[in-house]
Amino acid sequence: MYLKLTNGTPSLYSIERLRRDNPNTSFPKIPSAAFLADLGVYPYTRPDRPDVDQLTAKVIDGDFEQDADGNWIWPYVVRQLSQEDAAGNVRSRRGNLLAESDWIVTKSIEVGQSIPADWAAYRQALRDVTTQEGFPYSVAWPTKPE
């Protein structure tokens, strides 16, 4: 994983591309860091991708940066979704969870029984998700009965 500095601006690069860009140059099988640096090519590291709630945030590529030792890093950046988009995503998930539990309502109606209390409480808790403090960015999802 390499980058190339062109007029001080880093961009993704590869050893294969370096060889294609310089067809008349003989390269060592494994070029040294010093050799690559003379050509403006540097290795970079990539941190682990952050684990985020995809209903309320997205992970995007950041800009290349150097650490205190001069090593190049290509970080990830977490961007919180707008309140409108996050709320829509949470409502959509809630709707899917309600739809997944519709069978218990249908079964209860078909046999002329009440909806089991644990399922009724679960479905009500799903409906109440939008009234939780912190909605939509902080939602405590109810546990589905077994």
**What class, by secondary structure content?**
alpha+beta
- Lateral strand order in the biggest sheet: 2-1-3-6-5
Q: What is the approximate shape?
A: elongated
Strand content: 15-25%
Give the end-to-end Cα distance, rounded to a whole number of Å. Answer: 47 Å
What is the tally of beta strands?
Answer: 7
Radius of gyration: 26 Å
Low-confidence spans: pLDDT under 50, at least 5 residues?
Answer: none
Rounded mean pLDDT is 96
Number of helices: 5
Number of domains in the coordinates? 2
User: What is the chain-wise order of helices and strands?
Assistant: EEHHEEEEEHHH
Note the main sheet.
Answer: 5 strands, mixed
Provide an overview of this structure.
35% of the residues lie in helices and 20% in strands. A 5-stranded mixed sheet has the order 2-1-3-6-5. A two-stranded antiparallel sheet has the order 4-7. The chain has 2 domains: 2-80, no CATH class; 83-131. The protein contains 5 helices and 7 strands; from the N terminus they run E-E-H-H-E-E-E-E-E-H-H-H. The model has no long low-confidence stretch (mean pLDDT 96). It is an alpha+beta fold.
